[in-house]
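Archive entry. Fields below.
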Amino acid sequence: MAVSSNVLVQRRSPVALWLAENGALVALVVLVVGLSLLSSDFLSVTNLLNVGVQAAVTAILAFGSTFVIVTGGIDLSVGSVAALSAIVLAWGATPAGWPWPVATVAGLAVGVACGLVNAVLIAYGKLPPFIATLAMLGVARGLALVISQGSPIELPAQVAHLGDTIGRYLPVPVIVMVVMGVVAAVILNRTYAGRAMYAIGGNEEAARLSGIKVDRQKLITYALSGGFAAVAGIVLASRLASAQPQAATGYELDAIAAVVIGGASLSGGKGRALGTFVGALILAVLRNGLNLLSVSAFWQQVVIGVVIALAVLVDTLRRRETS
Amino acid sequence: MTGDILRAEGLRKQFPGVLALDGVDLSLRAGEVHVLLGENGAGKSTLIKILSGAYHPDGGRVLMDGRPVRIRSAGDARALGIATIYQEFNLVPQLTVAENLALGRPPRRFGLVDRARMERDAAGLLARVDVRVDPRTPVGRLGIARMQMVEIAKALALEARILIMDEPTAVLTTGEVEKLFAIVRQLRDEGVSIVFITHHLEEIPQIGDRVTVLRDGRSVAEVPASTPHDELVRLMVGRPIDQQYPRKRARPGEPLLKVRGLTRRGVFADVSFEVRAGEVVGVAGLVGAGRTEVARAVFGADHYDAGEVTVNGRRVPPGDVHAAMEAGLGLVPEDRKGQGLVLGAAVAENLGLVTLRDATRAGFVDRKGQRSAAAKVAGRLGIRMAGLDQEVRTLSGGNQQKVVIGKWLVAGARVLILDEPTRGVDVGARVEIYQLVNELTAAGDAVLMISSDLPEVLGMSDRILVMARGRLVGELPAAGATQDDVMAMAVAEVEGGRVQ
Ligand SMILES: Nc1ncnc2c1ncn2[C@@H]1O[C@H](COP(=O)(O)OP(=O)(O)OP(=O)(O)O)[C@@H](O)[C@H]1O
Ligand SMILES: [Mg+2]
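PREDICTED_STRUCTURE:
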């Protein structure tokens, strides 16, 4: 009765706050509910697992991109680097005849190396990240084509198991996705490298004057992005049991979209692994749903473009309201 | 009451977790300078942002010439004749001074921007505020004091009836404050009404006519500007403050910081000095004397061409912030927004930035420990916030400054360089910062304090270095020195014009 108006205005309902903070999650739930009403096939176990597998590659790439975007950078090369890493693995194992573990390490190392080259160009060469990674997008794709001579190479059987399903319900790509997501979340939240990423993205000069070695942290950031891209490339190849030089073309844009839908800011300093995960799921659910509803591939592109714009728009409006 | 050009009645403004204004009244007469006084976070900036259309009040009303008005945007405010100089600058660093001055309404000729006229207009405005700067210089290259003067020139260009100034003197030196006051008096005599925010109590009788005191989002008093300091402090803080500069001087020990022949071509030359354990060395000088530049070079934030820096006997390599920190140096930079803070991050994150490395074990950060350390400093400095998770961007200006200082206080530097440490900080919190400086020096650490606030330099340093035109032109013990002594040194060299 005698509640002071003071208290009333000071407290916004916690539910409303939570909803505002987790807009992407809400959108995902709405999408899932909507699709399960529209299509009876959507909620079947097989279909959901399918969605998970489809989300896996995008999500792993996007976790790597989250690091970069949090520092205020961008990595356009992840799709190409993914393809190159898988090609190097397959080429090492089959034509070159290395033992498969060696080939796998080589594949991962190539991804990390591409990231390091990006970082050197950005941190020491002072190239804008957009340009440096755009160059790498071309170089890595080109190298993948050169090494493979333009044709797919078979993956060693041991590595191809990454594309399997354990029992009936546990696709390995989904497991890899979850593991990489947890790794990304731990790096971002708990490690020095992660905290430094937020500081650099928020205000690079303040970070430098606080004793953070900005250039070195950028090396770590882009190397991680390259490493995550390599894992994504290998998972993608394992599903087909062969590495394709043209694989993952354009995936960098999906990765960026997932990160941004997940609430990160392209100007840096903001972003969460969980958000990125939800962003990747939204893209996968949407694609899957549109397929189930037999929407033409042409229209799908339109719908996805609109969804990305909407997601970011809602986010911006929300932020403006709270500030 | 008649004669009021503007009245605000019962203004309320709610932010998430903070009731910034809770019933504020303000009456502004034609041709008066009305001072707004209040602690950091009392709501001064919020009040003027409502008057300038940047925020919408949740309650209350604004009247102009007795009629209620709605100020929904900066455009509305401009149409009503209200011009505002915000506490945080609104300049585009990449654009030139002339472009900034004409922002949004550049002079045109045949539909194209008339650059020649734009630069002529700019030169005229700059002459009015008496700053010598080429209108074609990008604003980002000006120091913070000259940026403030450009802001003032920009507001003058609007020919407003009401001019609102949020802490314009915070970044200015004594000489520039005089210039600003001359402009303000002239405007007032022309009938312009001025709302003036400051934390420098001594400015109030010099420039003000009446004072409205805000406390915790309420207007608690309206008094004449001649009200004694103690009374103003009591109204503002709710209790008296006995000693404004509580410096406890101790006998200095070993030299901790040695700077020899530091030179950066065209900026500063042959700067040598020492700071001893337990000592506070003040650095005074006019804006542009090169004080900040020397501080940044010593800390490794910028490169230099010659000279050397040693801390505690260890040579510090040039241009390496990390090495400087390892050696025991710390720097609280003057530009909190650009260099001191990650505005989009939480208070806790910002307070923990400098100690991030130390709080890391095997790559993992002890975030709980970081947080409790942050909570302690925040409490000590009385940072007014909704919580440790509040974004620093939404803190009041003075509370942001407390965060910049706080993050270095937790770091445990042996030699702390403070560049304008109390800029925008209210009287109570200032004393708290001085106490912390005392604690540092009592523990055998040293402080190098650059400040344009002469009473502060005199009151808190043990020794004062005076810089002019990139050189050290004198040194004097703080005990017994007067403002005039310091200014005489700082100005003599400039007027002589011998150096460089
Ligand atoms: N956009 C915002 N979001 C949340 N809180 C805000 C916002 N702007 C201001 N506040 C809060 O409102 C209160 C009043 O802030 P305001 O900037 O008006 O203080 P001030 O009197 O100008 O202080 P200072 O002397 O430090 O400049 C502060 O507690 C501040 O944290
Ligand atoms: Mg303020």
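CURATOR_NOTE: Residues 214-240 of chain A form the longest helix (27 residues).
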